[in-house]
Amino acid sequence: MKIIVFGATGSTGREIVRQGVEEGHSVTAFTRSADAPLEENSEVRVVRGDVFDGAVVADAISGHRAVLSAL
């Protein structure tokens, strides 16, 4: 399943990303900071943007079957 995780760089978000990859899901990590620490994992797609920008969020979630928030 294709999932996107908002708040993917916090402790809860990182755990959701880790478990999603472990379960074989296609995971997108949404983060606001270009400097945010993300696990070095080529299986995770990273989208950087502001959750208050509706157009960016709409583009980011397009095509995903599940949206998870750890904000």
User: Helical percent range?
Assistant: 25-40%
Q: pLDDT average, as an integer?
A: 89
Please count the helical segments: 2
Number of strands: 4
Strand residue content: 25-35%
SS-derived structural category: alpha/beta
Structural Rg: 11 Å
**Poorly predicted ranges (pLDDT <50, ≥5 residues)?**
none
- Describe the biggest sheet? 4 strands, parallel
Sheet with the most strands: spatial strand order: 3-2-1-4
What general form does the structure show?
globular
- Span between N and C termini? 21 Å
Order of helices and strands: EHEEHE
In short:
With 71 residues, the protein is α/β, with parallel strands linked by helices. Helices cover 28% and strands 28% of the residues.
Annotation keywords:
four-stranded parallel β-sheet, 71 residues, globular, alpha/beta
Tell me about this structure.
With 71 residues, the chain is an alpha/beta fold. Helices cover 28% and strands 28% of the residues. It has a four-stranded parallel beta sheet, with helices on one face. It is globular, with a radius of gyration of 11 Å.
Topology:
Elements: E1 2-6, H1 11-22, E2 26-31, E3 44-48, H2 54-61, E4 66-69
Parallel strand pairs: 1-2, 1-4, 2-3
